[in-house]
Amino acid sequence: MPNQIKPPPRGWLWSAEAADYLGVCVTTLYRWRRDGIGPACKRHGLRRYAYRITDLDAWMNGDTEDAGTETSRVAA
Predict the structure, then answer these.
(1) Between 53 and 65, whose confidence is greater?
(2) What distance in Å separates the CA atoms of residue 70 and residue 5, rounded to the nearest whole number?
(3) Rounded to the nearest 5°, which phi and psi values hold at 53?
(4) Which of 8, 36, 37, 70 has the most CB atoms in a 10 Å sphere around its CB?
(5) CB count in 10 Å sphere of residue 69
(6) What is the pLDDT of residue 47?
(7) How far apart, in Å, are the Cα atoms of 28 and each of 19, 63, 66?
(8) How far apart are alpha carbons 31 and 22 in whole angstroms?
């Protein structure tokens, strides 16, 4: 049975969908997450990140300070 991508939890978007929602390239969204300046997100598994739609709206409206992510940072 092929490995199918599961839909995100209700009210959330995967990285590619969140980038489209914000009108930016997914690479930009990755860079924002890396630098801690983008909207809040939650890690799902090893490589997937989900963004809550309400967090994206709040971040676009400037209702939050640099939200960063809920994941731990790794020193380079």
Answers:
(1) 53
(2) 22
(3) -60, -40
(4) 8
(5) 18
(6) 86
(7) 8, 20, 15
(8) 14
- DSSP at 70: S
- DSSP H/E element including 60: helix 53-60
What's the pLDDT score for residue 58? 93
Query: Which of these, 28, 37, 34, lies nearest to 66 by C-alpha position?
Result: 37
Q: What is the pLDDT of residues 22-63, one digit of tens each?
A: 999 999 999 999 999 999 999 988 888 999 999 999 999 987
Sign of CA dihedral 66, 26, 61, 7: negative
| Per-residue confidence (pLDDT) for residue 40, from 0 to 100 | 93
In the structure encoding, which two tokens stand for residue 12, read together? 């959330």
For residue 36, the number of C-alpha atoms closer than 13 Å in the C-beta half-sphere is: 6
